[in-house]
């Protein structure tokens, strides 16, 4: 990475927390030492970087906190600093991850405190016009929540949408995601970390314009941590999305299940989704397909 790009990132980081600006610049300075990434993705980001900032708004209700990732309130800055691209998705993992961190355009920070029981789904929604979007979701010990992620990546520039999902002890999370990208060169990453006795169910729907690569990772770091992944996709002769699941368990009776189903007819996919998903997710997918 050249000095000119580092200077651009430094200026773009001026309105964020000092630690975040320093971390983004460090990612660029160490870039050449890291494992290689996709040439098409990285070449575009280096020659024509997009450093626009998506401001977003703060939402939430009760104890739940939802704020723009690049403008988190000071009382949550420490949580962000400890967890952003550290436990679930390491920024040092490869050049793609490092560049994604350095060139962040925005995303969401969602915090569900210990013991929270959220009866209605939390919906992360909104179209993104910039290529590097990152959501950090922290679910505290004993909390129960359903999260729906419907955030189309509208830009045609090579894109990377990452979601980090960290579960505390005995947390229960249902996570539903609709993959929708305008760019042919694109990455959808859902990277998870689970403490002991936590339970996670992930349903990913690949529609008419999914990410070129969908990467699902999980580190189940504790006794009886359980995860269940379901991937539903439309069959398209012109599109061959690549699926990359990678799971690691580190505790007795920890386990992961993964299933994948393909459909020629959108109606059949929606019907299969309706068997387990909340109505709001089914309606969103149905509207997108029709």
Task: Give descriptors for this structure.
single chain; 290 residues
Count up the helices.
7
Largest sheet: 8 strands, mixed
The number of domains is 1
- What is the percent of helical residues? 10-25%
Rg calculated over all Cα atoms: 18 Å
- Ranges where pLDDT stays below 50 over 5 or more residues in a row are none
Please state roughly what percent of the residues sit in beta strands, choosing from under 5%, 5-15%, 15-25%, 25-35%, 35-45% or over 45%. 25-35%
Separation, N- and C-terminal Cα atoms: 43 Å
Overall SS class: alpha/beta
Q: Can you list the strand order of the major beta sheet?
A: 1-2-3-5-7-9-11-13
Order of helices and strands: HHHEEHHEEEEEEEEEEEEHH
**What would you call the shape?**
globular
Overall pLDDT confidence? 93
Task: Briefly characterize the structure.
By secondary structure, the chain is an alpha/beta fold. Helices cover 23% and strands 34% of the residues. It has one domain.
